[in-house]
Amino acid sequence: MIGDPNAELAGYRNNELEISRVPPGTESATLSDATLGQEVVRILDLSSVALFLNNATPPFNNQKVRQAFSAAIDRDAWIDQVINGVGRAATSWLPPELPGHDPNLGSEYGFNPDLARRLLAEAGYPDGAGFPSVTFSFPNVGGEQIIAEFVQAQIKSNLGVDMNRLCTLNPVFSPLFVQVQYLHKKWARPPTRESLGSTRRYYDIEPYRALR
Description:
Elements: H1 5-13, H2 27-32, E1 47-53, H3 63-71, H4 75-82, H5 113-122, E2 135-138, H6 144-159, E3 165-168, H7 174-179, H8 184-187, E4 194-201, H9 206-209
Parallel strand pairs: 2-3, 2-4
Antiparallel strand pairs: 1-4
Helix pairs in contact: 3-5
C-alpha cells in the first residue's frame, strides 16, 4: 500500500502502477493535463470527513466550544479553493444520496465566523484568550495533511485558537489505521483531545433505511 498519493501518482506516470488516486489539491491541474485529464475516472464516493472533538474532557465538554469550532470552518472554501470543486459542503454525517439525509441538520452551525467568536467568548475564551493547548492528531496517509493544515488555519484565523501541536501517526502504523478506520475510535485512539481523518464510506445503504 502506498500511503502518499503524490508518490502513487508518480508511479502511475512512470507506468509502474495501473491506477492512482488524484492527490488532494491537484484536481484542477490533473483534469486539465492533456494526458491525465483523459484518463481520469470520476465516481460518486459516499463518504464523509469530520473533525472529532473529545467531549469527555475540557475544553470540548463545553457545548458552546464545539459549536464555535463547527461555525469557524469554511467548508465551501475547502471545496472551492483547495480541492477544486470536488465534493460538497455538509453539516451532518449522512451524504445527500443516502436515505435519511437532512440538508438542514446542523446548518445553524455552518460557517459563521461572527457566531463562532461569540460562542467561544460565551464559553469563556474571548478571541481565543485562555484556550488550553490542544493536540491535533491525524493519520499520515492520503490527503490528511492538507485537511489538517486547512482546519488548523481556519481555527486560528476565525477563533484565534492555536492548534500547533500536530501529531502525525507513524507511517508504519498508517496503513493499519486506514484499514481499521471504522474501529479506531474504539481501540486505537491516540491520547489526544481531537482527531481528524476518520472517513466513513457507505457501500450498503440498507442498514440506514431502518433508521428513517
